[in-house]
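Hey, I was hoping to borrow your eyes for a little while. No rush at all, and the record is pasted right below:
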Amino acid sequence: MSLSESTILENIQVAGPFSHIQFDEITIINRDGIEISRTIGHSHCIAPGDDCTDKPASVLEVVAIFHTPAVIAAYQAH
C-alpha cells in the first residue's frame, strides 16, 4: 500500500471592483493511485499591490493581467 500527497489549485477567481484574486490550495491524498481524501488546505486572497512572488505561476499570470498599475493605484487611493 502506497500513499501519496499532492497539492492543486482550484477556484481561481477575480472579485470585486479592485480585482482581488482568490484561490484555494487543495491537498489530495491517494492510496495506490485512488483518491481517498481531498481537503482545502489554504484559501488565499491577493489584493492589488500585494507581494505574491511566492505564489504559483498560474496565479502570477492572473495577477499580471488584472493588477495593472492603474488598478493598484486606484486600490491604494481608496
